[in-house]
Amino acid sequence: xxxRSALNALAALNVNGIARNxxxxxxxxxxxxxxxxxLLILPIDFHEERRAQEQSHGFEALAFSSAGQTVSxxxxxxxxxxxxxxxxGIRDHLPLLVDSIDAYFSALGANVTLGGALLxxxxxxxxxGSFTLGGVAYYGCAFRHTWLIQM
Length: 151
Hints:
Elements: H1 3-11, E1 20-22, E2 38-42, H2 48-53, E3 59-61, E4 69-83, H3 94-109, E5 123-133, E6 136-150
């Protein structure tokens, strides 16, 4: 499978309660309130300090000489719940955030290899918080995926 196939499968993940799960071609610069909650696929990392800590292994040969090669990819699936509006804090959005994280893992748990696009189940790190996209701050959660795909 290809990296593009895995990204498309991630965009097709049906997460209960999420208004939009946008493919990379549909990722807005800054989503509007009516588009939220939304999941955005970011095949890039916008946090420099983490990039230095989590370098991908790139191409790796599997343990068996007759096996193909694999590529390790890091992808962020960014859940945006609401703009971090002045006067309203994260506390107002915590119930929706927690429920959305549970729904995300329920959907991913039913499709751990994204329809066979991944060689092994995705490893996902959860980072709830505030995220800035297109100059706008949002409350949400970054799901940091590490994938292994066979070439």
